[in-house]
Amino acid sequence: MSRPPIAPALTAALLLAGCASAPPAVPPQRYAFTPAPAPAGYTVVAPQLLYNAGRGFGFEPGYPPGRYFSVDLAEGNYRVSVSLGDDSHAASTTIKSEVRRLMLENVATAAGEQVERSFIVNVRRAQIQPVAGIAAGAVALKAPRETETEAWNWDGRLTLEFSEAAAVRSMTIAPVRVPTLFLLGDSTVSDQPGEPYTSWGQMLPRFFKPTLAVANHAESGETYRDSLARRRIDKIVSQLQPGDTVLMQFGHNDQKQLKDASGGPFTTYQAEIRRHVAMVRARQGVPVLVTPVERRRFGADGKPEATLTDYATAVRQCARELGVAVIDLNTLSQTLYAALGETGSQAAFALPETGRLDNTHHNRYGSYELAKAVVLGLRQSGLPLAAHIVDDFQFDPARPDPVSTFAVPPSPARSLQRPLGDESNAAR
Questions:
Q1: What is the secondary structure of 101-132 as a DSSP string?
Q2: pLDDT at site 104
Q3: In this predicted structure, what is the pLDDT of residue 264?
Q4: 428 pLDDT exceeds 70?
Q5: What is the pLDDT of residue 25?
Q6: Cβ atoms within 10 A of the Cβ of 138, count?
Q7: Distance CA 205, CA 101 (A)
């Protein structure tokens, strides 16, 4: 079964949703998933209890029982606190949110053990609330990609994906006021809807403490120009609170403007960067530029070849000119590919079918390593945001994690999703 595409007009409740950082005055929602009697104040949710609009929570229909739990929420940031473990057997729990954003990675519990973990999730809508310099309206979502395949990023609920071996005893969801890290970029950053594709933006939340929200507004096929035209930057700016950070990485698709003479790295591309930086700063946000991650290409000498040099250079020039922090992911990714080698680096890229390696887009392993490279860049930048990086973080792109030890489980195949505002096929 599937969620229908986003309806042309959303409900009044969605239009009136508050800004991301101001938690509404509502009590926490508490759910228990074990057959044992639930603690006081918790609602018991059996794996067979399917979501419906009247109830406002339950497991998504059309998937194995207990895999995708959804709950209606207003737009904003939420702390999700989970109690993990199974009384009868050892377990390993991975939790992803919305469209495959990694929150918890392989939390191991022994039989009878109970551990507590928490993470921050961001829930958003397409509507744009008016603020100084930003008119009311909505993000121009791409159909059918964002209105169907990626609709869970924009609907009226939070969806959490539990891994096959997960052991989730109970959960508390509460609105929270924390700093937000916004992401803006192309397909190498955006929430990829299915295997074998994954982006570094999807892996990034796993590397932060439960004191920071990551809000991924990147979208496949886009440029700085598209960000302006589709009002993605407007949506981010409308939610910015002083001190929030915006990471921006474009270049792959901007490069295509050279063919039709509609733009270039040192002209329109830089002008659009300046406009984005000015918009973020106008709301007292912190802009951070990211040089475009490299494609996989090796020369006859067995060393990585650059394909985005001018765009990476243009980003560095703008960073110096504007006094903006920069993460040089272009250089970091080349270091990573060189360390893996021409053959070994294939293990970092998506293989949609036998014999057809995608040398631009990454798989779970590649995106995980690149997310680490971004976090390393944030730490080296000296920005206050670095205080939110998990304490045990370490990474050297010249010595990447062995692919043999990588164990983030894949997500199950997903059907088309229900459109926002339409609950007609939700099981009751």
A1: EEEEEEEEE-TT--EEEEEEEEE--SEE--BT
A2: 98
A3: 98
A4: no
A5: 63
A6: 17
A7: 7
Could you tell me the CA-to-CA distances from 325 to 274, 318, 382 in Å, in that order?
13, 10, 9
Whether residue 23 is predicted with pLDDT greater than 70 in this model: the reply is no
As given in the structure block, the two tokens for residue 76 are: 């904003």
**pTM assigned to the model:** 0.92
- Residue pair 428/14 in contact (Cβ under 8 Å)? The answer is no
For every residue of 259-288, DSSP letters joined together read: TTTS--TTTHHHHHHHHHHHHHHHTT-EEE
DSSP at 4: P
Token pair listed for 290: 């990211």
| Pairing, β 29-32 against β 43-44 | parallel
**How far is residue 242's CA from residue 1's CA, in Å, rounded to a whole number?**
42
Query: Of the candidates 201, 314, 334, which has an alpha carbon nearest to the alpha carbon of residue 257?
Result: 314
User: Both tokens of residue 371?
Assistant: 């997310």
- Mean pLDDT, the chain, whole residue set: 92
pLDDT grade for 37, boundaries at 50, 70 and 90: confident
Token couple for 175 = 């609105």
Quick one: tokens of 56?
Answer: 């406002």
